[in-house]
Structure formats: C-alpha cells, structure tokens
Amino acid sequence: MTSTFNVRDATGYEQLMGRWSQKLALPFIEFAGLADGEKILDVGCGTGSLTFALAKAADLGEISAIDYSAVFVEAAKKRNADPRIKIGQADACALPFGDGTFDRALALLVLHFVPDAAKAVAEMRRVVRPGGVVAAVVWDHLGGMPGMRMMIDTVAALSEGGRQLRSRYCFQPMMRPGEMKSTFVQQGLADVTETELMIRMDYQNFDDYWIPIAAGEGPLGIYMATLDTAERMRTDVAVRDAYEAGQPDGPRSFASVAWACRGTVP
Prior knowledge:
The chain has helices spanning 10-32, 49-57, 70-79, 117-126, 146-156, 160-170, 179-186, 206-214, 218-225, 229-244, and strands spanning 39-43, 62-67, 85-89, 102-108, 128-139, 190-203, 252-264. By secondary structure, it is of the alpha/beta class. Strands 3-2-1-4-5-7-6 form a 7-stranded mixed sheet.
C-alpha cells in the first residue's frame, strides 16, 4: 500500500493536524464504542492521537497500533509508556494479524489516504471477531473543512495547479455522503451506521495556521513545495489575506466536520 499523505516531521504534523485529531478522537471513541478488557486495533495510528486516547477511555486489555509511515511509528513509540500498547509499522491493506484477533478495529483520519480504501476496510473486518466492531472517520473535505477550504479556494483562484489541487482535495476517497457506509456494507459488515462529528479548529494567528503547510506538511504542503519563490510569496500573501479577512491578524476558529461510520462483523 502507498499513502497519499505527506509527512516530513512529526512535530510539524502535530501543528498541522495532530492537535485536531486528538480532539476528534474523543467523539469518535464514543461513536465507535469501547468496553473494559477489549483488544483494540488502531489502523493508521499516526503519532498516536487515537491510540493514547483509547488507553485513557477504558481499562482495555491490549491496544495494537500500526502505521505505514516510519516517521509516525517512531514518534508514537517515543510517546508510549503504556505496556498495553504495541506500535509497529504495517500496511492497512495487509494487516499482520490473524482472523478475529480483535474486538474492534478503528481508523481515525486514515481511509481517505489509502488508495484502495475498500481493501483496508476488508482487512479491518477480517481481523475483528464476529460481533466485534469496525469503525472509521474521515474529514468532509468538500463541505466540512472551511479552514482548509479557505486555503484551497484561494490557491485555486491563483493558478491551474491550484484548481487541480482543489479537485484532488475535495474528492478524496470515502468523503462523499454515504460513501463509507456503502463500502462497509459491500465488505460484509452489518448494522452499518454513518454520522457526522464536529470539532472546532482554533488558531492563535496566521502563523499558527500556515507554518506547517508552508513547510511542506500534508497534502497542502506537497503543493506548496512545487511552487517557485515568486509563486510561494504570492500564495503566502493571498492566503494571509483570506485568513485575516480584512481584520487584524489574531485568533480564528473554524468548525470542522467529519464523516464517521461503524459496522458489526457478522
């Protein structure tokens, strides 16, 4: 499996998205369900936003966390002091676990970066016992991420490359209403439910918002890295103007919506 998410530095990722995935982890856990003593798999653990939230949410028996990125795995291992948590590098489309190993398999902000998302869902289903739960959540890039769409729509107005970026960003896998639910059903899961989860992304100022993107983190950072110096400066100015919206630089808050889906293994 390859991943369409670009990560250069774990610290940069935390500023770009990790702090928000930590907030999203809490309502996602409530939606996915959890019970003491269970064995849980965190698919695409990143720096551990969901992994460590799970450890606090219940008296679990074991948490296995995997990610495709060696950078993420190393960062998560450095954070881990819980003997129940085991972290390793693995492919979401070829999970290194036996059939029915876990009570639940969860994926936080992962499936939209997996080129064969249906295969990843099938693998999550395979490693969960009958009666267990598979659950995932992804951002609604098209209609639910105004903070990111602010940048995306700005660069789309500047160049053809920006328009192409917008098309890729807005229509990643699993993001359209009902798309994850349909995939879960197709992969044989039962009692499938899809809902919306919302958090707020609060930024101290423009630099707090922009620095990790300008440094090349994430899909938006990949685009920035392709620009020459003049285009980068033009983009910086335009996105700053969009962020400030005619007012002095300072705090801004954006409501951010994600699609969440849950199903039971027959």
